[in-house]
């Protein structure tokens, strides 16, 4: 008898933050959320290897532009064929969040100098720079963002990019015994405890990168 694998869902009785939040829900300060970023194949390789760099142009000033709405990320970059776009799946530590919901908001370009880590543009807020009406975020510090998977890529580049992500996630964020604060697992977002490594691997059902301590995983294939 053979069984088809679809995934799992568990509930932990601790306060580890959840990763999913609807695009219309306001992100809570210091939460960690799943977001997306659209780019080219070449830039995707650089981002996976070296991390994001701030954009110096945009409606919210300097920062990395991402969205919890995958459809938003799928529109970028605007100047290339849709079939050539790559959508990176991210885990983002938003820190302190400022809501920017109208044109000429007094903190539209200065939020990062006022103690905020992320600016959030809610969906359908009417800002002229967002004609799609889709949710958008700008994260000032690129180190708050971790690439955890490839949500979309050209067929010939999908598996090589997924492997690059898998390799990048194997690298430890903090050395054991170094005295540094415990890091979060980039896949399950739970704290990494000394001498208790998380098992990260490729799901044999769908090929996604997973951690065995994730609260939920559903195969997409």
Automatic annotation (TrEMBL):
Belongs to the ARTD/PARP family. One of its GO terms (cellular component) is cytoplasm. Pfam families: PARP (PF00644). Residues 33-108 form the PARP catalytic domain. This is PARP catalytic domain-containing protein. It comes from the Eukaryota. InterPro entries: Poly(ADP-ribose)pol_cat_dom (IPR012317). It comes from Poecilia mexicana. GO terms for molecular function: NAD+ poly-ADP-ribosyltransferase activity.
């Amino acid at each position: 008898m053979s069984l088809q694998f679809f995934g799992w869902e568990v509930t932990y009785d601790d306060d580890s933050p959840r990763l999913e939040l609807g695009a219309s829900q306001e992100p809570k300060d210091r939460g960690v959320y799943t977001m997306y970023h659209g780019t080219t194949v070449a830039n995707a390789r650089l981002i996976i290897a070296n991390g994001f760099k701030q954009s110096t142009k945009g409606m919210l000033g300097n920062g990395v532009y991402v969205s919890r709405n995958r459809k938003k990320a799928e529109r970028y970059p605007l100047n290339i064929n849709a079939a050539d776009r790559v959508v990176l799946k991210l885990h983002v530590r938003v820190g302190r969040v400022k809501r920017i919901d109208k044109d000429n908001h007094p903190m539209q370009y200065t939020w990062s100098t006022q103690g905020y880590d992320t600016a959030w543009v809610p969906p359908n807020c009417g800002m002229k720079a967002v004609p799609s009406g889709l949710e958008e975020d700008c994260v000032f510090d690129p180190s708050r963002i971790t690439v955890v998977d490839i949500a979309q890529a050209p067929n010939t580049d999908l598996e090589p990019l997924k492997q690059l992500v898998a390799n990048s996630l194997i690298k430890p964020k903090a050395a054991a015994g170094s005295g540094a604060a415990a890091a979060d697992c980039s896949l399950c977002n739970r704290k990494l405890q000394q001498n208790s490594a998380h098992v990260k691997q490729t799901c044999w059902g769908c090929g996604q990168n997973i951690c065995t301590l994730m609260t939920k995983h559903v195969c997409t294939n």
